[in-house]
Amino acid sequence: MRIDVLTIFPDYLAPVREALLGKAIDRGRISVGVHDLRDWTHDVHRSVDDSPYGGGPGMVMKPSVWGEALDSVCADAVEQPRLVVPTPAGVTFDQPTARRWSGEQHLVFACGRYEGIDQRVIDDAARRMPVEEVSIGDYVLVGGEVAALTMIEAVVRLLPGVLGNPASAEQDSFSDGLLEGPCYTRPETWRGLSVPEVLRSGDHAAVSRWQRDRALERTVSRRPDLIDALAPEQLDDRDRAL
Ligand code: 6GU
């Protein structure tokens, strides 16, 4: 998979070279290009923003610079990439979106700052490639960079061969529509707190049932909206009794 990120703060994306993502790059599983939007300016001040039509606070990112930047990054693409525009005004990013994007050849993230990017940049790009304006949650960040990093990590860990143990992706929170329950490792007792007896019993059926019950309990108390969203066949009789 090819990933390009356009931003006025390329250093913000440095963590993409670390840990799991860095290893995916080293192994050639993904290639990542981080581009400074100001490379496509032509004035001495390298300006990327201007005041908004219609008034209001803040500045809007100019279409001319974005247009050239996107043309250039998409020019050498084999297939038309999918353009992702992180914005708090977007559709909420979730695990199904990450799963869907993990099947793409090429993702381009256009990170805006200030009040946003001139809408014509998005409308023009949509004339030749799929475009999604996406938010990572109901709060406001100062720019799209951290959101892009978040989405990139969620997508890349789903690529075959990136996680050491593919079962990790299958057993995640959300994969069965529930939050993951608690987990434990040695020692058996720590600061007077013991690992639940059943986990040490060797009774695999009892362990599975216990884990399922904790997942349900946690989801009911923390994310009741996820319970409401479950299809009837995702709950068994024992679940319903809980
Ligand atoms: Cl994608 N961008 C910004 N600036 N703020 C956000 C966001 C994105 N998602 C949630 N808040």
Describe the 3D structure:
This protein has 242 residues and is an alpha/beta fold. It has two domains: 2-156, SPOUT methyltransferase, trefoil knot domain (Alpha/beta knot, 3-Layer(aba) Sandwich), CATH 3.40.1280.10; 173-241, Orthogonal Bundle (Trp Operon Repressor, Chain A), CATH 1.10.1270.20. The protein has nine helices and nine strands. It has a five-stranded parallel β-sheet with strand order 2-1-6-5-7. Strand 8 and strand 9 form a beta hairpin. Helix 2 packs parallel to helix 4 and helix 3 (95-101) packs across helix 5 (145-156). It is elongated. The mean pLDDT is 95. 6-chloroguanine binds at residues 86-88, 135-137, 139-141, 143-144, 147.
Quick take:
With 242 residues, the chain is an alpha/beta fold.
Principal-axes shape call: elongated
Structural class: alpha/beta
Per the CATH scheme, the topology name of the largest domain is: Alpha/beta knot
Uncertain ranges: none
Q: Give the rounded overall mean pLDDT.
A: 95
Tell me how many strands there are: 9
Domain tally: 2
SSE string, helices as H and strands as E: EHEEEHEHEHEHHEEHHH
Q: How are the strands of the largest sheet arranged? A: 2-1-6-5-7
Q: Give me the CATH architecture of the largest domain, please.
A: 3-Layer(aba) Sandwich
What descriptive keywords fit this protein?
single chain; alpha/beta; Alpha/beta knot; 2 domains; five-stranded parallel beta sheet; two-stranded antiparallel ribbon; 33% helix; binds 6-chloroguanine
Explain the layout of strands and helices:
Blueprint: E1 2-7, H1 19-26, E2 31-36, E3 49-50, E4 60-61, H2 63-75, E5 82-92, H3 95-101, E6 106-110, H4 119-125, E7 131-135, H5 145-156, H6 167-170, E8 189-190, E9 193-194, H7 204-222, H8 224-228, H9 237-241
Parallel strand pairs: 1-2, 1-6, 5-6, 5-7
Antiparallel strand pairs: 3-4, 8-9
Helix pairs in contact: 2-4, 3-5
Bound molecules: 6-chloroguanine.
The site of 6-chloroguanine has 12 residues, from strand 5.
